[in-house]
Each structure stands twice: as C-alpha cells, then as structure tokens.
C-alpha cells in the first residue's frame, strides 16, 4: 500500500525519536511490501526560528495532503523562561490540532509485564492495568477566550464546551468501550463546573445508544487518586482537554516511564500520532531519549491504516526489546543502550520475518 506520511519532528528530542519511528516504519514497509513516502516540515520553536511562525502555512499544507502525521515533540526553554513571549512553540501544536479538527486524543495506558518492577508504584496495585484515555483535544480551557489585563494583574482563560463537541468524542469513546471491556468512566468536576455538568448530561444521554457499556462518573480529584490506587478498574476514561492532559502524564507512572506512552489524535479526516512526552531539551542530541513512545505512536499509525498485522509485529518487537533489556536509561539506570540502539533493535526485529516465529 502506498501512503504519504507528514513528519513533524519539532523540537528537543523530537527529531531523534521520530527518526527511530521512521526506521521501524521502513522495516515494516519493506517486510510487508508497502511504500511509505515521508514529507518533513517544521513546527514549534524550530519553525519560529526559521519563519517567525510556530505553524507555517506550508507545514499545514503538507499535513493536509498527507494520509497521516507523525509528530515528535514541541517546546523550548527559551520560551518557557519568558512569560511575555507572544509567539510560543506550543501554539504550533495547538493550532495544528484545531485546524485539522483532531478533536479526540487517544492515550493507552498499560502496565507492561516486562517492566512491572520499573514503576515506582507497587506491583500488585498496577498489575493488569490496561486502560485508554479519550481526551478532548480542540476545546475547553485550552481554546477559550484568554485575556491579560493591561496592568498585568489579572488574567483569564475561559473553559467553554458545546454539547456537539462532547457528543462527537463521546461516540468514539463509547465505540471504543464496546470493543474493549465495555466500561466508560467520565472524569469531570461536575460538583463545581457548569461545563462539567454539561459533559455529564450529554454523555448520560448518549449512553442510551450504547446499552452494553457501563457508564460511571468520577470527579477529577478522585480520579487522580484512583489512577494510582487502583488503576485496573479503568477501561475507557473519557475527559475534557486539560484533565486528560494531566491524567495521562500521571498514567505514565504506571507504565514506568513517560517515554513509553503513545497517542493518536483523530478527527473526521486525517490523524496525527505523537508521544505524550515533551521535548526534554536537556537530553537533546545526547542519544538518551526513549524512542519507544514514538515507535508505539507509529504502531497506532499502522492501525489507522488498517495494517493490523504490521502494527502487531511492531508492538511485538517493542515488547521483545523490553524483555531483553534493550532499553534506554530511563528504564534501566546505566543502560548501555541509547536512542538509536533501541530503535535499531526494534526495527531489526520488526523487519525480520523469521524473528516473530521465535516468540
Ligand atoms: C501534550 C502536551 C501539549 C498539551 C502541550 C505541548 C501543548 O503537553 O500533548 O500532552 O498540553 O496538550
Ligand atoms: Mn501533556
């Protein structure tokens, strides 16, 4: 199959981890006879440096023409340390999500048996964890009207949702639950926020069309606690933009490293695949960043192309790397393996048709 993939490596460790994901996609392409064409485009701080714009029009055009987008990471300390900066790298990603209408961000959270001892949480609490966060991605407080008063002594970010915005992600989350363990947990703050009460009403109404799915509700403060106390209770967790951002970082502690969590952002047309981690500027160029989140994002991309076997083979290769301890130092301190060695191992294993027989 011929597919066009837009590569947006972005900032910090983004280019290094995307490079490893591409290695793996190439290995899959040659094994399964696909033709992946990549078109690279700048986004984030690097795009600001080159053009003054974190999401140049030419980058958007590349994304619009692609079958899928593989994204690295975004952010640079020179902007984080300057609260007055008018143009920020993050605006590139946020605008991209909005422009491409990528309203649903899917973030799987798993306890990998091979890594169960890596998590700072106790084994018996996290064993069997397998849930997926459905995070609304183009609304809420991230996109509501913002202002800073002239004297810079007050500021506001509006959290606005419409029932339609809730319904479109709601359907996807219910459908996911139907295919999984048939449980959907809506996380909100309905005891305080009007927008959360709208979420509850809308999702409850929608739930009538999915009678096989058990729907329950949790306040976000309680959810934050439950995710570390008893994470295996969750199947599909549906939530608004900012709660989903926070809870998914928390969920990564279960897996053992934020360098393991992948995500897919989907809407009505194209889709974007990115690790949930940031640009980790301290690690840039040092060959120490964990490429697995990016590689697992590439596996989600293969699923999106309906290349189910290909995605499975890539995930098996990742799990083989974890089993054999071919991991970066975030997972095993003093590990001799760097970003590119881990990527090579996974790509070699995924590309070798005799390797899977040895599993
Ligand atoms: C993420 C990131 C982004 C977000 C930032 C970089 C804007 O943290 O994808 O989780 O908050 O959505
Ligand atoms: Mn985040």
Overview of this structure, please?
Pathway: Amino-acid biosynthesis; L-leucine biosynthesis; L-leucine from 3-methyl-2-oxobutanoate: step 3/4. Mg(2+) binds at residues 221, 245, 249. By secondary structure, the chain is α/β, with parallel strands linked by helices. It has 2 domains: 1-100 and 269-359, Isopropylmalate Dehydrogenase; 109-258, Isopropylmalate Dehydrogenase. The chain is built from 13 helices and 12 strands. The strands form 2 sheets. A 10-stranded mixed sheet has the order 2-1-3-12-11-4-5-10-8-9, sandwiched between helices. A two-stranded antiparallel sheet has the order 6-7. A hairpin with a 6-residue loop joins β6 and β7. α1 (14-32) packs parallel to α13, α7 crosses α8 (194-207) and α11 (292-304) packs antiparallel against α12. The two termini are 27 Å apart. Manganese (II) ion is lined by residues 245, 249, 276.
How would you summarize this macromolecular structure in one to three sentences?
One of its GO terms (molecular function) is NAD binding. The protein has helices spanning 14-32, 45-51, 57-65, 77-80, 89-99, 123-126, 163-179, 194-207, 220-229, 241-255, 292-304, 308-323, 339-351, and strands spanning 2-10, 35-40, 68-73, 104-110, 130-136, 146-148, 155-157, 183-188, 214-219, 236-239, 262-266, 271-275. The protein is an alpha/beta fold and 359 residues long.
């Amino acid at each position: 199959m011929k597919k066009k993939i837009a590569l947006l490596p972005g900032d910090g460790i983004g280019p290094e981890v995307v490079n490893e994901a591409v290695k793996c996609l190439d290995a899959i392409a040659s094994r399964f006879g696909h033709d992946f064409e990549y078109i690279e485009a700048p986004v984030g701080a690097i795009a600001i440096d080159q053009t003054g714009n974190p999401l140049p029009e030419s980058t958007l055009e590349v994304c619009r023409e692609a079958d899928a987008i593989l994204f690295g990471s975004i952010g640079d300390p020179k902007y984080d340390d300057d609260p007055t900066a008018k143009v920020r790298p993050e605006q590139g990603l946020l605008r991209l999500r909005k422009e491409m209408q990528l309203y649903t961000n899917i973030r799987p959270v798993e306890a990998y048996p091979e890594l169960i001892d890596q998590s700072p949480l106790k084994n018996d609490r996290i064993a069997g964890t397998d849930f997926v966060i459905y995070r609304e991605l183009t609304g809420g407080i991230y996109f509501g009207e913002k202002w800073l008063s002239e004297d810079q002594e007050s500021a506001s970010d509006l959290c606005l949702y419409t029932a339609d915005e809730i319904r479109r992600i709601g359907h996807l989350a219910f459908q996911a639950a139907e295919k999984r363990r048939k449980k959907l947990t809506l996380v909100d703050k309905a005891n305080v926020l009007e927008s959360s009460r709208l979420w509850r009403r809308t999702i409850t109404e929608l739930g009538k069309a999915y009678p096989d799915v058990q729907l329950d509700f949790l306040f976000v403060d309680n959810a934050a606690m439950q995710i570390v106390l008893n994470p295996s209770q969750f199947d599909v967790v549906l939530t608004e933009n900012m709660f989903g951002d926070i809870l998914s970082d928390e969920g990564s502690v279960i897996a053992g490293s934020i360098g393991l969590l992948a995500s897919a952002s989907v809407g009505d047309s194209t889709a974007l695949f990115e690790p949930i981690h940031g640009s980790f500027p301290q690690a840039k160029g040092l060959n120490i960043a964990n490429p697995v989140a990016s590689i697992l994002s590439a596996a989600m991309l293969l699923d999106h192309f309906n290349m189910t076997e290909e995605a499975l083979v890539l995930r098996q290769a990742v799990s083989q790397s974890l089993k054999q301890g071919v991991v970066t130092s975030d997972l095993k301190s003093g590990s001799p393996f760097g970003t590119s060695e881990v990527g090579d191992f996974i790509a070699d294993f995924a590309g070798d048709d005799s390797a899977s027989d040895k599993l």
